[in-house]
Specification:
EC number: 2.1.1.-
CATH topology: Rossmann fold
Family: Belongs to the methyltransferase superfamily. METL family.
Shape: globular
Order of helices and strands: EHHHEHEHEEHEHEEEHEE
GO molecular function: RNA methyltransferase activity; S-adenosylmethionine-dependent methyltransferase activity
Number of helices: 8
Protein name: tRNA N(3)-methylcytidine methyltransferase
Strand content: 25-35%
GO biological process, one term: methylation
Strand order of the largest sheet: 1-10-11-6-5-2-3-4
Number of strands: 11
Structural class: alpha/beta
Largest sheet: 8 strands, mixed
Helix content: 10-25%
Length: about 280
């Protein structure tokens, strides 16, 4: 594996100076890529939670910035609740909560909110529970591999109003994506909204993986980073397919978002490409 001279986990070190919304993907073409040997593919997938645990051991709670931008991108997650509304209390599920960069800023400003927060990293959940603002009356954090463990073992059936899936599904092997969708469906109410944002196909990181002399490709659009964590790069067509195939969710909106980012410390200008979408539980 190559040295850590570029890592898309390190997005917090970049400042955003341009945002371009687009409903279509770019017409890039990836070079013929060398795939990682099957032994290592299986090993990376088997040790996914271990590698994320090591990530949080190295970086503790200091790596990612608080996700204050989410409310601007998804009005459903801004939680500007009208106190006069009856039954305005909301139950939110955050997939892949990490160390709480979404949880605590949101809970601090919204009294009518309860968050179920899960992550498959034991260490990440430990950090969440040790946070000075963690309160079981407002939040329940638990270890869960959403591609395998049943969410309904931790959350009442059809209880969730909103699901936050922000840079989470990409860390899961694509053969398990449909399992995650079915898992979410068991705990969401009819009309619940799924807020999705993740890496898009032809993101700068994928292009760098493809052009690297080292082997990063595990399978189509799925790569491994130098630290052993993995990342899938989505197309809107694929995302709609996995959400809509069993008629559990319907598509509301989707777009590609390009962010030109600058790392002033290294003098780098990088084009990041994300996919943002919303789905509704049927």
């Amino acid at each position: 594996m190559e040295t850590n001279n570029y890592n898309d986990n390190n997005i917090s070190n970049y400042s955003f100076n341009k945002i371009v919304d687009d409903t279509s993907n770019s017409s890039y073409k990836l070079v013929d890529e060398k795939s990682v040997p099957k032994f290592w593919v299986d090993k990376y997938k088997k040790e996914a939670s271990k590698n994320w645990d090591l990530f949080y051991k190295r970086n503790t709670t200091n790596f990612f910035k608080n996700r204050n931008w989410i409310g601007r991108e998804f009005t459903e997650l801004s939680f500007n609740v009208d106190d006069s509304q009856e039954n305005s209390f909301k139950y939110v599920l955050e997939l892949g909560c990490g160390v709480g960069n979404f949880i605590f800023p949101v809970l601090e400003t919204n009294s009518k909110l309860f968050i179920y927060a899960c992550d498959f990293s034991v260490r990440a959940i430990e950090f969440v529970k040790k946070h000075e603002q963690y309160n079981e009356s407002r939040c329940h954090a638990f270890v869960c591999d959403v591609s395998n463990d049943k969410l309904k073992d931790y959350i009442p059936s059809q209880n969730i109003d909103i699901v936050s899936s922000i840079f989470v599904l990409s860390a899961i092997p694509p053969e398990h994506h449909l399992n995650v969708i079915h898992n979410i469906s068991e705990v969401t109410k009819k009309g619940a909204i799924i807020c999705f944002r993740d890496y898009a196909q032809f993101d700068e990181t994928q292009l760098k993986f493809a052009s690297s002399n080292n082997q990063h490709k595990l399978q189509e659009n799925f790569y491994v980073r130098q630290d052993g964590t993995m990342s899938y790069f989505f197309t809107l067509e694929y995302l709609r397919e996995i959400f809509e195939v069993d008629k559990l969710f319907k598509f509301i909106s989707g777009k590609y978002v390009t962010r030109e980012t600058i790392n002033r410390a290294k003098g780098l200008c990088i084009d990041r490409k994300f996919l943002q979408a919303k789905f509704e539980r049927l």
